[in-house]
Amino acid sequence: MNRDYRDIPGTYVMDGEHCRKGYHLNMFCMSLNKAENREAFKADEAAYLDRFKLTSEQREAVLNRDWLGMLRLGGNIYYTFKLAAFDGRSMQYVGGSMSGVTEDEFRQMMINGGRPVEGNRSKEEQSNNG
């Protein structure tokens, strides 16, 4: 199904399709709410992930801490951030990682009002200007 928001770069709206795609990934992330699950994951990440029906791409994204990849593969930022918290990472760290800048650069960008609008409105706009 074609949605208007699919034309906005970097937008991963949690619609029904995206929720279904990321269900098992998000359930893994939610499992980290329990101390015993965090301990099991810490002991052997790959073995712990075997408990969930992740795609190979989702599994790789988790193991590599590919934050943007997890979102592309159906992850919800509120759930995937549980993995970042497990790693002792801040939201600014994750945002910086997804934006290609350092944690401090991302923090400053947000203080300054966020990412520039130019080039970030739609994929069609980018193709017409490039």
Q: Could you state the oligomeric state of the chains shown?
A: single chain
CATH architecture: Orthogonal Bundle
- Strand element count: 0
**How confident is the prediction overall: mean pLDDT?**
86
Global Rg: 16 Å
Label the overall shape: globular
Unreliable sequence segments: none
Quickly count the helices.
Answer: 9
Quickly count the domains.
Answer: 1
Order of helical and strand elements = HHHHHHHHH
CATH class division: Mainly Alpha
Roughly how many Å apart are the termini?
Answer: 27 Å
Q: What is the CATH homologous superfamily assignment?
A: Dioxygenase LigAB, LigA subunit
Q: What structural class do the secondary elements suggest? A: mainly alpha
CATH topology: Protocatechuate 4,5-dioxygenase, Chain A
The helical percent reads 55-70%
Give the amount of beta strand, in percent.
under 5%
Sheet with the most strands, sense and barrel status:
none
Structure description:
It is a single chain. The protein has a single domain (13-129), classed as Protocatechuate 4,5-dioxygenase, Chain A (Orthogonal Bundle), CATH 1.10.700.10. The protein has 130 residues and is mostly helical. It has helices at 16-31, 35-43, 45-49, 56-64, 67-72, 77-86, 91-99, 103-111, 123-129. The radius of gyration is 16 Å and the shape is globular. It has nine helices and no strands. Helix 7 crosses helix 8.
What is this structure, in a nutshell?
The protein is mostly helical.
List keywords for this structure.
130 residues, mainly alpha, 9 helices
